[in-house]
Design brief:
Blueprint (H helix, E strand, L loop, with lengths): L1 E4 L4 H10 L6 E4 L13 H17 L5 E10 L8 E9 L4 E5 L3 E2 L2 H8 L4 H9 L9 H6 L6 H17 L8
Parallel strand pairs: 1-2, 1-3
Antiparallel strand pairs: 3-4, 4-5, 4-6
Length: 174
């Protein structure tokens, strides 16, 4: 199975490889424009970024599927504060499926900076005294004390968006 991932971030390619390992995937990272802001700030914008990445990665390759992964932040009804959200999209060129990954409430000090316009990655780097947290354990790893990490969290978005292609419970027309 040939998969094109719409990002050159190695965490995203690894998330796809690990999550879909039973299908023995060949994963190609493709630099594409998400078509959304660097820090998506709603569920809608985050999903649109994942969809754009999936479609553009597929269009740039001869892969069987294009995969897009996007992290964003959003205020969720019924939940306090600002949350980190993760969405995935998978397309075979005819249909596109979407699925979410874990959601994490951001600490107030982080949420305030992001709400004021900062991007989450650099804010987390400052908090942790690191560089490139988005290409390692990510905010997910830091905010759960390692109970999960960015690769596993994004893997859940991959599984949720790829599931309809590999189970008989969905019609292609759903």
């Amino acid at each position: 199975m040939e998969l094109a991932v719409g990002s050159t971030n190695p965490v995203k390619s690894t998330a796809v490889e690990r999550t879909l390992e039973r299908y023995e995937p060949t994963v190609t990272a493709v630099a594409v424009d998400s078509g959304v802001s660097e820090q998506p700030r709603s569920i809608e914008e985050t999903v649109r970024g994942a969809e754009n990445r999936a479609r553009r990665a597929l269009a740039a390759t001869d892969a069987d599927f294009g995969v897009g992964l996007e992290g964003g932040v959003a205020r969720l009804e019924g939940s306090p504060g600002l949350s980190l959200i993760m969405w995935g999209a998978v397309t075979d060129g005819d249909r596109t499926e979407r699925g979410g990954g874990p959601t994490f409430r951001l600490p107030d000090t982080v949420a305030e900076q992001v709400a004021d316009g900062s991007e989450l990655g650099p804010v987390m780097d400052d908090l942790l005294g690191t560089e490139g947290v988005a290409e390692s354990n990510g905010a997910a790893g830091a905010l759960t004390a390692g109970l999960t990490d960015r690769t596993r969290a994004l893997g859940q978005a991959v599984a949720s968006s790829f599931g309809p292609f590999v189970t008989e419970y969905y019609d292609a027309d759903d």
